[in-house]
Design a protein that fits this description.
mainly alpha, 5% strand, elongated
Length: 158
Amino acid sequence: MSRLHFIYPGKLSFFATVKNGKLNTMLNKENLNGIGLLLLRISIGLAMLLGHGLGKWSRLIEGGEIQFADPFGFGPMTSMIMAVFAEVFCASLVIFGLLTRWALLPLVITMLVATFYVHFTDGFGGMEKAFLYLVGFVALLFTGPGKFSIDSLIQLNK
């Protein structure tokens, strides 16, 4: 019997469990991947929500004349409503990991427009932020939300 086994016989500590004399760490590859995806989801989702979405939502609610890019010909007001939907509602879903891949689709489209329509003529420095959001959202679209998400909890991640 090892000292660790004697001290922690089958009880859960923060990093490890001891079961049948074997040390099982919670910091395995699956958990570390899940933690990484959780950090990516929360950071990129909050940055989008707080840095872009809430400001647009506020401008939308205040009324007044809307001056906004209209890449699809729906009109500036409709385009702004779609951007607010993506940057507020969908970003919130991504943060919690709920319907994540569906929520990422409007965000990817919005960042494609921001990168290649709105900021393309600004050079890389002007489109860099939108491009980084785009890459992060596409990466999450490929990987899914990870182990520590509501999708995973309710088996939507499979």
